[in-house]
Amino acid sequence: MRKSKLYDLRMVAGDLSGLYGMQDFTYNEGKAKGMRAIRMDNGNGLSATLLADRCLDIPFFSYKGVNLGLITKTGLAGPQFFVEDGKRGFLKQYFGGLLTTCGLQTAGAACEFEGREYGLHGQIHNIPGYNVNKSELVDDDEIILQVSADMREACVFEENYELGRLVQMETEKNAVRIIDSVSNNGFARLPLVNLYHINFGYPFIDEGARMYFSANKVVARDDIAENGFERYYIVEKAEIGRPEECFIHTGGGGAQFGMIYNRALGLAVVVHYDAGELPILCEWKCMMAGDYAVGLEPSVAGFWGIRYAVEKGLARYLEPGETKKFNLKIEVLDNYGAIEEYISKCKENK
């Protein structure tokens, strides 16, 4: 009988935590004090930190010591500091990270709808998880690290959502999977407009890096973005006071992706999503000094808020007892041939 990779590793390493694994820890200073986090390391250089106390979102993400994700000036803060206050409540609490989950009842612009005030990007990103569990899945030569948790977004007399999340990190490939199940545990039909705010920062985001998209249509969000439309796929240098630009990518069915490639570092990150689940990919290009970032954000209904989503017919709905599932993969590449293969599939290959 053939032995597994795990068996082989145990022959040469008494404690496998020196090779790969997960560490469960608690932050001990600043506004992050008391937050539970889990760090995943795949043994090939990929590292991610998950916040069990904030929707199992991912603040830190790196590959072989190179930071890939975004950490904003707010830094990490516990959920107790969140106050929904138009757009400022979110922005004061927004660490960026590789992933900030937006929704579930609204995502995007703050708005008033049906007599209720909604803040920017909703509340789910500040809800602590319960039933938090970490484990290893062993399948022959593949060892997969995984962390799961449940989050409940509910209000007496109103909504009762539950988000079940599973985050998996591969050890044979440098990839992270996010597998979500969103349920309506109430007795009234509920809108569902979640958005995955996937973010990248310096040094991965730097002048000369480029973006590539498999979707076949792109439009600018507003006049500001329209003025920079000819360079929507190019990362430029940081500029003081430069406004953010947003572009909307749609078209194509089934498996789609957006990729950022930093040729100087020889690194690319690919965000995989299913257009059937998440039909709108929002590109957030922020070349503003001090807030320098790029976001690739697969979404159900874009970044315009619940009122716009309902009025324009973009919102999806959960019937009582219904569950919808969402799957994403974030893949890190340092192989030129693999990167070029993705580039060949995109219109930005100029």
* Structural class computed from helices and strand pairing: mainly beta
Main-sheet strand order equals: 11-12-13-14-25-21-20-17
What is the general shape? globular
The CATH C-level class name: Mainly Beta
Low-confidence segments, given as residue ranges, are none
Instruction: Determine the mean pLDDT.
Output: 95
Helical coverage, percent range = under 10%
**Biggest pleated-sheet summary:** 8 strands, antiparallel
Strand content: 35-45%
Which CATH architecture is right?
Distorted Sandwich
Oligomer: single chain
The number of distinct helices, counting runs of at least 4 residues, comes to 5
CATH names the topology as Beta-galactosidase, Chain A, domain 5
SSE order in H/E notation? HEEEEEEHEEEEEEEEEEEEHEEEEEHEEH
Describe the structure.
The structure is a single chain. The protein is mainly beta and 350 residues long. It has one domain: Beta-galactosidase, Chain A, domain 5 (Distorted Sandwich). Helix content is 9%, strand content 43%. The strands form six sheets. Strands 11-12-13-14-25-21-20-17 form an eight-stranded antiparallel sheet. The protein has a six-stranded antiparallel sheet with strand order 8-16-23-22-19-18. The radius of gyration is 20 Å and the shape is globular.
